[in-house]
Every structure is written in structure tokens, then in C-alpha cells.
Structure prediction request, 179 residues.
Amino acid sequence: MGKKVLIISTSLRKNGNSDMLAQAFARGAEESGNDVEIVRLADKKIAFCRGCFACQKTGRCIIDDDAVQITEKISEAEAVVWATPIYYYEMTGQMKTMIDRANALFVKDYQFRDVYMLSTAAEEDGSACERAVNGLKGWIACFPKSRFAGSVFAGGVTDKGDISGSKALEEAYNMGLSV
Prediction:
């Protein structure tokens, strides 16, 4: 029996470069027998965290929007994969907002152990994703049963589809196979 894998695609551009990385990872993970679900934040309504900490008492955010269901999916997944384009050397605002809204996980018996990051950027330098990776590692540090399991970065991709034929797609597929 494979693992339950949740891929959270944070780009607002459907079928863009980071979506393609997510799909490659998903193919690999499915082929190795895992149960894979992709959630696209572009299709969801997610408000900003209010910082009220009610979720720390109830285990559920008081804002009734799509983030509540996504947080539950994160809690139940054994592997969580975040896919993001890099904007100004950071993760998307949508990704950060979802991370903040997943605050209810602190009081839950979460299942995720392995957390991955897939990222793309117009910048070619591999260091372009470092701040985003460190931001995700900061989130992971709050969950002692989990670990940063790896990342794939595709640089030099700006326009939709630029990633086609990229070595990064193969890397994401292979990473998915290894989940």
C-alpha cells in the first residue's frame, strides 16, 4: 500500500511551469503505487489568517473557507508537496497564506512526515529559490515528526510551457517515484 500524497499547486497560472512540475511529480508518485491528490489554490477561496489563535483551542480555523478543507487534507497526507513559482526570490503569496492558515495543524495529530518543494523561476541561478525553501523549512521546523525531503528547481522559465523538455521535469518525476 502506497502513501497518501498531497500536492499543493500555488500558482494562479493554470498549466504553467510549476503546475507542470507538480504533474510530473504526481505521475511518478502514482506510478510507484501512491494515492495522489493535487489541490490548486487558484481554484480556492482562502482568506488571510487573522492571528486570533482560536484554531489552537478548537483544532479548526474559524474562517469558513477552502483553507479549512485543505488543512485537513494536509493533516491526513503522509507526504506534502508544495509547488510554487518564485516571485521576487520568494514563494507565492498564495502559498504563504495557505501555510499561515494551516495553523490548526499545531494541535492535530498530523500524518505528514515528508515535505517537498517544487519551484520555478525566470531567474536561472539555482539560488533563486533559497528564500522560499528556507521559508518552507521554517514551517516544517514547527512539526517535529516531519522533515524536508527534497526539492526540484527549474530556472530560466518565464512563459507558460518554457519548462517543456526540461531536466527538472524528469527530476520531479523521479522524486515522485521515490516517495
